[in-house]
TrEMBL record:
One of its GO terms (biological process) is glycine biosynthetic process, by transamination of glyoxylate. Keywords: Pyridoxal phosphate. The keyword Kinase does not apply. Residues 186-397 form the Aminotransferase class V domain. InterPro entries: Aminotrans_V_dom (IPR000192), Aminotrans_V_PyrdxlP_BS (IPR020578), PyrdxlP-dep_Trfase (IPR015424), PyrdxlP-dep_Trfase_major (IPR015421), PyrdxlP-dep_Trfase_small (IPR015422). It holds the Pfam family Aminotran_5. The keyword Transcription regulation does not apply. Signal peptide: none annotated. Its cofactor is pyridoxal 5'-phosphate. Belongs to the class-V pyridoxal-phosphate-dependent aminotransferase family. This is Alanine--glyoxylate and serine--pyruvate aminotransferase a. GO terms for cellular component: peroxisome. GO terms for molecular function: alanine-glyoxylate transaminase activity; L-serine-pyruvate transaminase activity.
Amino acid sequence: MLTALSHRGVILARGVNAHSCLSRVLHPPSACRSRRAMGSVSIPPPASLLRPLETPQRLLSGPGPSNVPPRVLAAAARQIIGHMHGEMLEIMDDIKKGIQYAFQTQNNMTLAMSGPGHVAMECAIFNTVESGESVLVAVNGIWGERAAEIAERIGARVNTIVKPPGGYFTKEEIEQVDLQLVFFFSHSHNCLFLLDAVASLGGSPILMDKQGIDILYTGSQKVLNSPPGTAPISFSERACKKMFHRKTKPLSYFLDMGWLANYWGCDGKPTRTYHHTGPISGFFTLRESLAILAEMGLENSWNRHKEVAEHLHKGLESMGFKLFVQEKHVRLPTVTTITVPPGYDWREITVYAMKHHNVEISGGLGPSSGMVGLPLSFHMTCLASSLIKISRKKDVQKTCHKRESESGPKKKKKVCVMCFRCCA
């Protein structure tokens, strides 16, 4: 008995000594730390990281991300839990149900990608397209161009129908394309229909099941008012049949829906297997954003965006602005694009709005760069009245330089940078 106690005492003593040694390693005396640092570290810590983090308060009315509500910010501040804990899996189940509601779908294969909307685009194409297959992409801007390039990199036979930025496609126009070229469109032609809803989901009516959409995805940082980093996506039964009866494995392991389906509990298996460590805080915020949308109601959200967009469009046009998308019925209520009058540099306007009002507006991207300026997006916030008030302030004046034309010398005009009216 005494021998046993003595032996145990030795073990405890060794434990104490081990803990003491570990403590000295992890928390050495300051003099020791200093000598060690001087002897082994040649690159000093960056001075910027020794200062507290500071970020400005801005009104984000550009194409995204959008301002995050306090309730969602509070969700981001919660202590993280394990990515495979039971509580985390329940949160993921909540997210799945929220996406099904937002998408208006009963698809079981519904989840959130770990990454921005661009990751969801690549996931959709990587999993459903194989080398040598035909794809038709309707291109009217940079995102159609990128979808086509992604399919080309896989080795697909990519065909495009193209319209200039601001244009749109009708179902009839697409069906007129040689049906042998079509991959993403019509069920009647044994094809799949993919829809990018990054800028519209939640602010414009989208009914995945009723509209026959096979693959639908969006991003968290737009209408959902969540931080960037998660991307809801859903696949129909037809899309799943195509995905899971491939001849080859998807090129991306990270985006392989065979793994992701299990990680999100979409494959019917009793246990979930580790695939990657998901963005836990991002899932917290996405869950909260979907909860806010559910509490508001989809139809209320659609109506709210429609009403505010109409108010914004009316106010802008009354001040002399020309909206880039000509036909009212195809304008997105979540993003308003404005054509900058010839001769003026939209960059001056965006810089001024940021510098003097902490309001973010931006220019075009890709094919629309230089053609359109000042995309204004308000997503789930009522920015219309605020933007119009800002544009009417007397102090929002600046000397803008009109570009020198071939027929005349350069002239200076003192104009209001928000409405382009002469203020002299």
